[in-house]
Amino acid sequence: MKRVSLVFTLALAAGLSTQAASAQTLKTVKDRGMLSCGVSQGLPGFSSPDDKGNWTGLDVDICRAVAAAIFNDPSKIKFVPLSAKDRFTALQSGEIDVLSRNTTWTLSRDTSLGANFTGVTYYDGQGFLVKKSLKVNSALELNSASVCVQTGTTTEQNLADYFKSNNMKYEVIAFASADETVKAYESGRCDVFTSDVSQLYAERLKLSNPADHAVLPEVISKEPLGPMVRHGDDQWFDLVKWTLYAMVDAEELGITQKNVDDMAKSDKPELKRVFGTDGNLGEQLGVTKQWVSQIVKAVGNYGESFDRNVGAGSKLGIARGLNQLWNKGGIQYAPPIR
Amino acid sequence: MSIEPRAPPPQFVFRLKRALGGRAGWGGFALQILFVAVLVWIGYEIVANARANLQSQRITSGFGFLNNTAGFDVSQNLIPYSGSDTYTRVFLVGLLNTLLVSIIGIFFATVIGFMVALGRLSPNWLLSRISGAYVELVRNLPVLFQILFWYLAVLAALPNPRQSISLFGTFFLSNRGLVVPKPIADPGLEPFALAILVAIVACLLLRSYARRQLFESGRMIRIWPYVVGLLIGLPLLTALIFGAPVTFEIPELKGFNFSGGSRLIPEFVALTLALSTYTAAFIAEIVRAGIQSVHQGQMEAGASLGLSRGSTLRLIVVPQALRVILPPLTNQYLNLTKNSSLAVAIGYPDLVSVFAGTTLSQTGQAIEIIGITMGVYLLISLVTSAIMSFYGWRLSRSLEA
Hints:
The complex is a heterodimer. Chain A is of the alpha/beta class. Chain A has 2 domains: 227 residues, D-Maltodextrin-Binding Protein, domain 2 (3-Layer(aba) Sandwich), CATH 3.40.190.10; 96 residues, Periplasmic binding protein-like II (D-Maltodextrin-Binding Protein, domain 2), CATH 3.40.190.10. Chain A contains 14 helices and 13 strands. In chain A, the strands form 3 sheets. In chain A, strands 1, 4, 5, 6, 7 and 13 form a 6-stranded mixed β-sheet that branches. A 5-stranded mixed β-sheet of chain A has the order 10-9-11-8-12, sandwiched between helices. The N and C termini of chain A lie far apart (46 Å). Chain B is α+β, with helices and mostly antiparallel strands. Chain B has a domain of 246 residues: MetI-like (MetI-like fold, Orthogonal Bundle), CATH 1.10.3720.10. In chain B, the strands form 3 sheets. In chain B, strands 1-2-3-8 form a 4-stranded antiparallel β-sheet. In chain B, strands 4-5 form a two-stranded antiparallel ribbon. In chain B, strands 6-7 form a two-stranded antiparallel sheet. The chains are: A alpha/beta, B alpha+beta.
């Protein structure tokens, strides 16, 4: 692990010392014919490779959507699996074009890392996973517990804050990768495994007997997860940002993977703008007029992607909750495409 | 025919030319200057460019972050630490954890290594085969694998705290580590510590007296009964007069874990075990090679003087072998220290884990943090090899004397 971060750091030092600061990411990606996308090392539902090596997940779909908008081909991607602590260095060094790896949007990350968050793909919060045999029903009963956590995450700080403000003692054991953390939890080294709730559900599937473990009801933090791009390239920032908005707007407008071709023929002015039969909104972003239909054909709208990867249609079975559209009781809201 | 008196060679200029330019003379000197200038220029360009680009991308740089609050906790800290301390404190906590594992690992690796080497050279067939098998097994498996083996296969198999293995109701062994009673200082501690100090000094004086007697008049004095008496008797006496030096806080099972007592965390145990047994296998081979490099005649000479095998090894062979052993032994010590950064795989909070890991990803200042971390490892290694060189220098001086 040390070696990996060292490589990225050297790449960062070398990259920063040679590369001009005004990066033209879109042009670079088009010339390369391939989008380089930073993902997790395997988190079911968000980004994980299947047995054939195909990456799937909600975070992966964001990258696929960006590739679809640029190349009209969601397979033109190189996925770079990153640990939590290597991810920002990989983005800063130019190793990846987009970081789509369940990363929490915080002020310090937005300002000091030389990168920007482009939006929120999943509204999450931190929770606790415990063995049912411990008979714990609330996080407030966790005094003196041993807690396993993945290092390099906001989770570590939230954990310290939560136990401190509730006057509880605990022991923290921090591991470099999610797999090592879960292994230690399963072996009984810790009483509790803490992470974002979505991740807890995903990791629980990997345990030998998922039904023996329960997620406690407390959610102790706000964890808005979203993609990141480098500072200093507004065109690229806009494209990645609007790719997510396009998926959310598509759901709101009722455009799905199945009906996208029919909808494209509609003469409603709103849909004509979205599908590029009226105006040139896509070209303003630096891609084609048909960018929205390319995105939806490739990965579906936001709701479809959610259901397929983490929601009702997936093994995780997480309820939409906060991630429902704004007009259906959630807070997913995208500015209009016009 | 008159002989022209040859001008004496311009000694000073000549020497200067040789010193600066070597055999190539002034041309070589110019080349060296040019080479150094190019190196400095490249270094300057790298630093200046990186700075400019960091600024233009508005990535925070500099060392100001060291004064910011860390906001996360660490499972093992040798100095008081809480989440509200600064990153500087985190750095110190991590550094001390690294040093702790390195020093204890080096100690055990050396002891095990010497024992295995002597075992391998032993005339006892079984002992030498077992030692040989140990070396071949342990040094041929990757060290990360061995760390994970100790951590996930051996220590994790221990029972949970509620079913922990208890010794006399005071020591508890579980998958959370070994919990032992914690000594708490009482007023009797100061005279007690003083008594131990006095006993140690007295023993050292006794030893040098006995040696002088041996060398000057050939009298052997058995000093060990006095040593034992001094080391145990004197502190015991003060404890009787001034009261017990410490009281022990007995750990108790409360909720999930033991409260009270001090604890040896399993991450530390697994890492120390793996690193010391792994490095010991290499040290054993180095020691064996060193001992075998001493001429067989030395062993025979010792035997003909009537010394036992152990005394011959201790007094004659090992001191000569040390000269050969020391340089490669230093390498192994350095390797052990550097390998301790594998701690991150099992969640032991060493320097790489808490500083180049958590701190790096929380501040995002990769260049500064990796730079500091590399500097620290370099410093630890240089100090280690300086100590070993000093020891080697003293050794060769005493062998020549």
